[in-house]
Amino acid sequence: MPTSKKVKNKKQDTSHFIAILSAFIAIFALHILLIVSTPECEQGLAGLFCSEKLVLNYVTPALTVVAVVLASMLVVSIIPVLKSAKRFRAIILTILIVVATVTPAAIQTNILPYSLSTIKCGGLPVESFTVIGSSQYRLPGEDGYGINPASEYTMCTQNEAEATLAYHGREQTKALAEKGRNYLEESKEAARFSPEKVTYELYVPNPNIYTIEDLRISEIHQVNHSFFTVKKNGNIIGRVREVPSSNDYNLCAYNNPAERYCTQIGLSSNGSEIYREQNKGLRGWNSQYAGANIGNTGIIVQSDIDQDVIDLINAMTPYKD
What we know:
Blueprint: H1 2-37, H2 52-81, H3 85-108, H4 111-121, E1 126-131, E2 134-138, E3 152-155, H5 158-191, E4 203-205, E5 211-220, E6 223-232, E7 235-244, E8 260-267, E9 273-281, E10 284-294, E11 297-302, H6 306-314, E12 316-318
Helix pairs in contact: 1-2, 1-4
């Protein structure tokens, strides 16, 4: 008889635990359903209560209290069940399976973080999100408000949202400024000329006669082109580009008489032929560029005066740091 009564008590304890667990799950599910449907108050289960203010101010907090009470009862009711190891293991296994199945999906879709924030805030939280690097927020009831996988729900009030996003805005401004400074430094370094950055020998005019300014390189089609401005007696006489002699950008790289052709304008002191390239454009033929090849280097001078080009080519010497 005592054994029969003991078994009966164990069954009752287990039944109480399962009943409370079921009630807790049902209340929690109802809570989430209300949270999901409240932003569109006329639709879903929240429509049974509507208005939205009633749900936010009374129903959701009340369900939160009920869920907390049931959670406490759940803890108390599980103690007698511990005496029945087999049933306890079965129940725990079931709970673990449910949690393992539901939790990842709830986290990934933001339902769980949204629900926890609702409990923390005692109402619907502020939705914060980023659009093209700019932090923004939506309040409950505004168009687009709801559970979105890309949003966050860590703030409860508009004042908190404005203060937090203002801080983030300042941090973003600092980060952008730092990024801009880094970009400028990287650009300066990329444009700085050094012999190891090019595959040809750089030539510059005799420094006793000419001065050069703004020596830099620029990568074009994976080849570094060198650029500098040449002055004589303080006046600009030409701008120079140097490339590998075999490069497609080199002077007279191809000959098409209908569009482009080259004419020889002289010889350098070492016997290199100096050419002027004629190009046909919308306004007719023009010839801004002239130059010559020295070794594996193509030297292109932007100048309209043949003699200036010839003198400049004759004054070219290998560059030295």
